[in-house]
User: Fold Mechanosensitive ion channel protein from Rouxiella silvae.
Amino acid sequence: MQKLFRAPFLVALLLALTFSPLLASAATDDANDQQQSSTDTPVVKPIDAPAALSALQKRLDNIKQAVSSAKNDKSLSGLSDEALKLAGDADTLGTALQPLRQQVQAKVDVLGPAPAAGALPETPQVIKQRKDLNASKTALDNQIEQAGAIKTGANNLSAQIAGLRRDALKTQLALNTGSILGGNFWSALTSPSSDDAERFGEYRQQMKDAWHLAFQPEWRIGSGLLLIAALLIGIFGGRVLDIPLAWLTPRWLPVGRLRRSFFAFATAMITIMTLGGAAELFSLAFTRMPDVSDWVQETGDLIFKLSIFSALIVGLGRSLLSIAHPSWRLPGIADPVAKTLDSFPKMLSAFILIFGLIEGINNLVGTSVAVTLFGNGMSALLVAVSAAFAPMRVNRQRRKMLAQGEQPEARSTLAGLLHLGTSVIAFAIFVALLIGYIPLARFLTYELLWVGTVIACLYILMHMAIDFSESLFSPSTASGRLLKHSLSLDDRHLSLAATLLSAVAKTMLLLIAVTLLLGGNFGTTTPLELFSKVVDVWGGKGLEHLNIIPAHAVNAIIFLIVGWYVLRSAKRWLDNDFLPKTKMDRGMRASLVTLFSNIGLVLVILITLSVLGIEWNRLAWIVSALSVGIGFGLQEIVKNFISGLILLTERPVKVGDLVSIGGVEGDIRRINVRATELQLSDRSTVIVPNSQFISQNVRNATMGNAQGVATIALTFPLDIDPEAVRNMLIEAYQAHESIQDTPEPSVTFSQLGPDGIVLSVTGYVSSPRVVSRTKSDLLYEILKKLREAGVSLGRTQTMILANPDKLTAPTEE
Assistant:
C-alpha cells in the first residue's frame, strides 16, 4: 500500500521538475511575440504540483486510517516510518516549489506596479501578463503552504504514533523489545536520536528559564523562602511532629490496642503531610509565576503526585517498623529484623520518585519509544533488586538470631505467602528483563508496588477500625460507660455493637481496597479517573467484542482471591462472632450463614467475570447452553438447588429440627445447595435431596413445639385399686428429672374391658430427642414400684392357629 501511494507522487514530482522549464520557455516566447517588451522572464504555471499535493494528502489520510486500526507495535512502528517519509516528501515538494515562486516574483518585479491614474495606459498584453503572473504567484503560495501543512500533519501524526506506542507498552505485555543486556536497550544513552536530543534540549531550556524567572528580583525572596521551607519540612518535619504524637497518644487514648494502631496511622499521615508539603512548596517555587510554561507547570504537578506516593511508602515503612518505638510496633516483627528493613522503604521510594519522574517527563515531551523503554527497564530493575534483596536480608537476620540463641518472631501463613509472592514476582521481573519483555517487567513492577501499598494501608486501617470499635463500646472506657448508662444497655449489647461496627468498617475498607487494586496506577490516578475505572469494571466489554488483556486477567485473579478470602472471613465472622451474640436459634443462624455464602459465591463469580471483560447482557450463548443442559441432564440439579433456596427462605425445616421423611427420622445437620444432611440416632448420616422436602410429606417434630411427650400405656387386672395405681404412676413421673412440671403429668383411663383396665400416663420432656431414654427410665421405675406394692400387670391374650382348617379356642399363655 505504501508503494502504491508513493509511485504517483514521485512521477508527478519528476514531471513537474522536468517539464516546468520547457513550459516556462514556451510562455516566454508567447509573451515576447505579443508585447515586444524588454521582459525576458517566462510565465511559470505549476501544472503538476496539484497532482503531487493530492497524492501526498491521500497518503496522509491513508496513514491516519491505518493508525486507527493498528493492533500491535510492529504496525505502529511501520506507520511512524511512513509518516516521517511523508513529511520528508512534503518538504521536498515545498523546497522544489520555492525556485518557481521566486521566478514568478522576479517577473512581477520586472513589470513593476500598475501605472497610477493619469499615467500612460499599458497595452492589453502587459495587463494580461501581470494578471497571469499574480495568479501564478498566488497558486504557488497556496501550494507551498499546503505542502507545509502536510509536512506538519505528518510530523504530528508521527508524534501521536509514538505516544500510542508508549501507551501500548503498558498493555501489550507479550511484546519483546530486546534484552537489557543488548545494545538497543542502551542506545538511548549511547546514541540518542536527534529528535530526542532536540526535545530534551527544549525541555531543559524551559527548566532553565523557570529557574531564572524564579530568581528575578521581584520573585527572588519568595522563591528562596519556599525552597528553604521545603528543605526544612522535608528533613525535620516528621521528627518534630513525632515528639508531640508520642507524648499525646498515651495521655489522650484509653489503655488498649487502639494506642498502637492510632500511633501507626498517625505516623504514616505525618510522613505524607511533611514530605508531600515539602514537594508542594518546592514545586510552588517555580510554578507560581504567571509566565511559566505548560511543561514546567505539568512537571510541578508530576513531582507533587509522585512525592505523595513515595511519602506514602516511607510513611508505611515508618509506621509498620516503628524503629523509635518498638513496643508500639503493630505487626509482630522482631526488633533486629525491623532495623534490617528500615532502609528499604526509603530506597524504594527514591527509585519510584526518580524513575517515575523520568517516565512522566518522557510522556510529557513526547520522546521516542527507546527512551521510554530505557526508563521503564531501569526502574523495573532497581525495584526488583530491592524486592528481592529485602527478603534475603530478613532471612539472613533470622538465621543469625537463631545462631545467637535468640527466637525470631513467629511468622503467620499470610506473611509467609506475601514473602514468597514478593520473591517470585521479583524473580519474574528479572527473567522478563533478561529475555527482553520490558513491558511485562514494568507491569509486574507497578503491580507489586501498588498491591503491596494497598495491603499495607489496609492492614493499618483495619486494625485501627477494630481497635476503635472495641474501645468505643468497651465497658471499661468512658465512652462505653456513657453509652451503657444513657441507653440502659448491658455488656452483651455493647459487645454486639462493637462487633457490628468493626464488621461494617472492615467491609468498607475491603471494598475500597478491591477498588484500588482494580483501578490504581502507580499513585497517579485521580479520584475521578479511579471512579471511571470502577464503572468500567462493572460494564465489561462483552463477549461479542471480547478483548481480554493481561491487566484485566490479573485484576480478575486478584478479585477472585480477595473475594474468596472476604467471603470466607465474613462467613466465619457471622457464624462465630456476630450471630451467636444475637437471640436467634441455632437453625436460623445456620440458614442465614448458608444463604449468605451461596449468594456471596455467585456474586464473586459474576463480578470476577465482569472484571475479566465479560458483559452479561451479551451472554446469549451461555443462556442457550444452559437451556440445553437443563433440558437434558441438569433439571434434577436445578430442581434441588431451587428447593434448597426455598428451604432457606421459607424454613419449613431448619438446622436442628427432628424430622421424619420417607421412613427415615433424624436431626437436620446441614442444608446444602443440592441436598440436606440428616443425622440418625446411631450417628450415621443420610443425604436427602432438597426436592423431597418440598414434594413429600415431612413430619417435623420440633417445628411448632420443641417439647416431647413420653406416654406409656399399661394394662392392669380388674381387681386393682385404680386411684392407688394412678397416684403411683404420677409419683414415678414426677420423680424423674426429665419430666417437666408444666404441664403436669396426667393419667388417662383409656379402656375398661373383660381383659383388664388400660391406663395411659403422659408427661412432657424438653425435647423429642429424650423421649425414648425417658420412657425407658420410667418403665424401670414403674415396674419397681408395682412389685413393691404387689400390683401385677394384666395377662395378654394371643390367638394360636393349631390347624389351618379348624380354629381352636384361645389359650392362655
Notes: The two ends are 115 Å apart (CA to CA). The first strand starts at residue 658 and ends at 661. The beta strands are 658-661, 664-671, 675-679, 685-689, 699-700, 708-716, 746-753, 756-765.
